[in-house]
Each structure stands twice: as C-alpha cells, then as structure tokens.
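Exam revision sheet. Question 4 asks you to relate a sequence to its structure. Input first:
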Amino acid sequence: ALDVNAACSGFIYGTAVARGLMATLGGRYALVVGCEALSRLMDQTDRSTCVLFGDGAGAVLVEGTTEKGVGMQGSYLRTDGKGLPFLHLKAGGSVCPPSQFTVSHKLHYIYQEGRTVFRYAVTEMSNDVGMMMSRFGLTPETINWVIPHEANRRIIEAVAKRAEIPLDKVIINIDRYGNTSAATIPLAMWDNEKLLKKGDNVIFTAFAAGFAHGASYCKWAYDGDAVGAAK
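Answer key, structure tokens:
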C-alpha cells in the first residue's frame, strides 16, 4: 500500500502507478482509492474557496486482463511547477513548518487565484485530451465518453468546447458533490457506470495544484448496466 499525493489529479496518477506496478510485479488486481477531506483545509470565512470544495471518496478495482483491445491503453502525466503560486497551502511543509505564527495567520488553508487557475485548467485539460486523441487515433466522433475531474462546470464546458467534444459525451456530476479533488472521477464513474459499455472509448482528465495534470485513455472492458443491476 502506498500514497500518491497528486491533489486533484491523484486518481489519474494512481491508476497509472497501479498499472505500472501490476506490469512489473505481476499482480492481477489493484485497488485504487481517491479520497479527500478538504473541509479540514478550508477557511470557512473565505467564501471564494470554501463553497467550491467537498469531502468524498471513491474506489475502483483494477484487474489485469489477457483480452486484447480492452483496458487502460495509456496515460499522459505532466507537472508544471510554475503553477505553485496560484494554488497551494502556504504553510505546513518543510519550507514553512507549522508554528504559532502560521496557525494564527491562517496559513494552513487552501489558497488559489481562481482566474489564473481557470485559464490553466482549461488549456491543459483540453490539451491533454487532445494528446490522448492524437496518440491513439481518436476523434470526437469515436470518443464515447470524457470523464473529467469535476472542478467547475464552466471549466468542464470550456474544456469540451476547446477539445471539440460534444457536451453530451462529457460526464458531469459536480452539482451533486462539489469539487472532491481526487475523488471526483471515481464518483462520476460510480454515478454513471450504467452508461458505460464494453468497447467504449473513455478519456479521463484532471488538473491539480502544482500544477499536476494529465489524461488517460481506457477501452472500457465491461457493460456497466449489467453490474449496476446487481448493486
């Protein structure tokens, strides 16, 4: 068991790590859990941030398969450190350890510059979706679903428009939970599993503090409605 700290991109990174470990260590199954308790990092007097985030968790069971043409096909992961000033915790790490001063000055809460983060998120998430499409020969017509990190509906709509993906192919559930960071993608999968069919081309994409971001492409391996009927 290990932690992967990639903030809102944690699920994308976690599934890539699981896939790599299964390939090198020979395991058949991996459990990837995306969970956040962001309420503990929110300044409840800062209405520009505290109303955007929620607590949540979701898990997926990843199974190795010998069936050709299905499963995770590839990922694109990137970290751009120039995003540090725009979305971060000011204190709590080795650069600025906890102290009476940091606590009294509320430096242990999430800080973000919303407009800057919005611009980078739209650009990078749409670019990452484009990277997956280009690498695997996909088009807006052959993509069945895009499951994005549920950060902000306006961001999701702008990403879809920029990537030329019809919005009816984009799974959105932010209205139910808010931004639960690494939990958003598995929660969206759970809520909409019945829509996913074997052979569907599914792209996941996320953007996070750091800035850490990326996308992955999966050829869906089972009929979700059959599993959903058993829930």
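Marking note for examiners. The longest strand covers residues 71-79.
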